[in-house]
Amino acid sequence: MSRINTNVQSMIAQRVLGQNNQNLSQTLERLATGTKINRGKDDPAGLIASEALRSQIRSTNAALSNADRADQVVNIAEGGLQEVSGLLTELQGLVTASASSAGLSDDEKQANQLQVDSILQTIDRIAGATSFQGIKLLNGNFDFNVSNVASGVSDYRINAAKFSGSSLNLNAVITQSAQQAGLYLSFGGTALNLSGTNGSFTIEVRGSKGARQLTFASATAVSTIVKSVNTFKDVTGVTASAGGTGVKLYSSDFGSSEFVTTKVISTGNIFGSNIGIYGMSSSDFDVVRTTGATTFTNASNGVTDYGQNIGATINGIQAVAKGKSARVSSDFLDVELNFTTSRSQQLGAVGTGGTTATVTGGGASFQLAGKVDIAGKVSLGIGDVATRKLGGSVSGFLSSLASGNSNALTGNNLDSAQKIVSEAINQVSSLRGRLGAFQKNTIGATIRSLNVAVENSEAAQSVIRDSDFAEETARLTRSQILVSASTNVLGLANNSPQSVLQLLG
Prior knowledge:
Elements: H1 8-33, H2 44-98, H3 106-129, E1 131-132, E2 135-136, E3 144-147, E4 153-161, E5 168-170, E6 172-176, E7 182-186, E8 200-206, E9 211-217, H4 222-231, H5 233-236, E10 238-243, E11 246-251, E12 259-266, E13 276-279, E14 303-306, E15 311-314, E16 317-318, E17 320-322, E18 325-329, E19 333-339, H6 341-344, E20 348-349, E21 357-362, E22 364-367, E23 377-380, E24 391-392, E25 396-397, H7 414-465, H8 469-495
Antiparallel strand pairs: 1-2, 3-21, 4-19, 5-21, 6-15, 6-20, 7-11, 7-13, 8-9, 8-12, 10-11, 12-14, 15-16, 17-18, 18-19, 22-23, 24-25
């Protein structure tokens, strides 16, 4: 064939050369950028997957930064609490030293009070000064805001609460009443009737704090026995009250760890009607059981009654109880409620309409997951550690130890002062322990898991998007050879029609 109008071989060579040039250009681009997906047409599905992974990696890295920031915040709060804890320990020593009346002058006690005032002022200053980037950490800024607290709640503590919306209702339901341990000693009259004027009635009273042995002579009045038992109530943990023709012994506190044991060492041949040791009614602690009595003679090995913890649910979660206190701890809610004595013994929902209290906001919230939702957040409550807040509504607050207040060292309420300081130490230690657990378990585990997630996501993204240089360099060599060959072939194809000129002579 000798046609020159259309050079088909040249057209084929041009097309092949164009394809080879395109392949060479793509290979050079991948080698230059290090990625094999530079635009959507390179791999549409791979581009979608890669962009999703890149977004996930960026969010996860931001969550890692949040976790590191949370750790720094807690570190600063812990530093302030450590100083407060040391000051409270010093305060405890001053209270104990001032309780000694012999060998301690008024000037020394006043000097101790000056130290107490200085400690209280320092605690308040630390509570107001401990901050992160100007945000105060220990003055209640990160405590939860609570309203509509039911009258049956004597005290509460919100450690953590995650919720969507503007508020969260706490719904507590008491399913089992809190009880003291209690026994009733019936003497058959208002005084002991022992056979013989030299007889003696000896008992051992034991409680959760200790035991005391008491001896009474014939004709000792019930009121005298009550006074004798109550003299040692701080030692034994057992309180006495007169009731009819006998004495009611009951634990000072509530809960299953409380007990009352009465052991009769010597009966003194006591006589009378309905004498012996009786239990208290489980439905009404003020009512003595009329059955199941133990005679004093059969009580030589002791008769014991135990208290009972409250049973409750909070927002449908079974609470862990101790005495009159109930607590639930979950990822979304960590709350402790202390109930009044009367309410702790009344079954049913606590509060008007079943609402025990309402959390309206507050707390410290940290975003520790790449996806922004309630599951990815962690909330933490850091209470106010000022002296007006440390302590409790029952025992009193730490500020009452200041000069001129009810529990100052110069007064006579040092036992109350020591209880307040002990309660404050427990509160600060509990807060430090909770923050430490948050750092060690929540933040630590989060950082480790997020680092692994970033590594795996980067690896997946690399497989999809990154260039394989060994493969691309091989393609580069192949494309260069093909382009060179295509160029030579195109030259030959363009020269081929010139051979037709020989036919023209």
